[in-house]
Amino acid sequence: MKNFGLDIWSNKNFIIEDGEIKLNYKCMPSLLEITNEIRSKDVKGPIILRFPHLVKRQIKTLYSNFSKAIVDNGYRGKFHAVFPLKVNQFPAAVEAITSQGKKYNYGLEAGSKAELILAMSKTPSGANITVNGFKDKEMLTLGFIAAQSGHNITVTIEGLNELETIIQVASECSLNVPNIGIRVRLHSAGSGIWAKSGGMDAKFGLTSTEIIEAIKLLKDANLLNKLKMIHFHIGSQMSDIAPLKKALREAGNIYVQLKMMGAEALSSINIGGGLAVEYDQHILSNERNYSINEFSSSVVFLLGEIMNAKKVEHPDIFTESGRFIVASHAILITPVLELFSQDYQEKLLNFKEKNPPLIEELIELTKLLNNANCIEYLHDALDHMESLFTLFDLGYIDLQDRSNSEILVHNIIKKALYLKSANPTNELEELQSKLQERYLINASIFQSLPDYWGLGQHFPVMPIHHLNTTPLRAASLWDITCDSDGEIAFNPEKPLYLHDVNLDEEDYFLAFFNVGAYQETLGMNHNLFTHPNEYTINVTDAKYEIINEIESKSILDILDSIGYNKDEILNKLKTDLLKSEFITEKEKNATLAQLETFIQQNGYLRTTN
Ligand SMILES: *Cc1c(COP(=O)(O)O)cnc(C)c1O
Description:
The protein is an alpha/beta fold and about 600 residues long.
């Protein structure tokens, strides 16, 4: 894996220089310098870094590709995009999206009451709000309130009952009626692991029969002039473009039919989200078979073609891409706390005045090992180790001898791997994965990479420094939850190799990339680990600046958030300690102060240097 697959997943957002990974933007800070600055303020656990410029880049890419496709195809509708809040509702993420999207009039999409309230308070004036998902009368009334408050809002109905409720609310009050959209149930389904949103058995959308009924209801209620949009969403992380094309043909023709049925105000097609992100570190285009350029030109071309054939005015095109917009903007950085086979360190060798002859030979092999002889010497070493184990079992050598031989052989294998790192033999590769190193990371996979836990979604991971040395240790990653699922195991088909570092002497940081979509609110507080500290980083030509710092919940706050009474807990701990015996008052008070500090911090470990 050359450069940890940077050329595959990073979209040129990062480069490796001087052994560190740097932002490929303006003053090009390295992730290590940012991390070190943050850690110098006594932050020890995992951190999330957000880069608004990466959101801007995605928004710009989306708009410029669609603008180009519109010009190239002589398309006469406009392009609009809204951001689906469910993909990341965190304040700093939403702030990055709305501020970076301002010049495009970029709007927000809501799928629940809470998200709708958020959209109503954060959508810049003039930008669009779209509303999807199941709705009750209250949620639909919120749509009316948004329209009355001046928002450009379209409420997409998922079923006829929602439409009936809209008609009822409209008759009961004199608030502005929001624009109405219809989610259509497509016969064609999506692709990829999230493809449950399309197809005849989809969870959402109106069938043809229901659409006809909807038009009748709207006409009767004198609200047909409010029908502005039809909507579909074929699922997230679309791997193949073919189902989208099918869906576009189907939706395009439904649009045409509705126009013919008298839906004169109907003016837009919302194609939902689904644009995929490259997460693979090993094989290019494993995740998707199309580019954003192909995606936008297919959408514009197909819709234009359908409308031209039926002489229908070109509709405006809406997208609700979420993952594509925000995945890249957030990076999780985790310190490594421990390498489990550090016990094989050379400094732990403890030779005797007289060592068993096979150990003396291992010492010789270690000294003489070079590129030309290393395979042969490696075989000798493995052979000696077998013999030494047998000698131990028979009682001829002691535990100290055995420990020495394990360390020596381990180091011979490591050196051989290093010498042959450019072109390892099959045997070496096998040895390597047997000698897997377990890296304990100061993070929770449940909290920060829930899609890895739930769906096996891989996220690009790499060290942020040491990048001018070849990593040789086959690595599996363990998190600090006490759950055996909190592990990213070594996968020989998609191997991860990390560096052999001595954590007593230096820090070692791993970064997980593309974690900006879905992971943050899906993340769970298993073992009561909380959302990590997060920092928004503004990068300019001259410098980088940490502009927003949000601390993770303290131990007391997380207990409070699941319903415990903070004061009660604090009091109980204090009284128990105060009534304890056999320590001085002075020590009691010092211990109390210590306890208070501990519970005001988050629960991540603080043992790294
Ligand atoms: C989830 C969702 C999206 C976002 O999908 P992405 O794959 O993140 O682009 C868009 N629209 C609707 C209706 C959704 O439910």
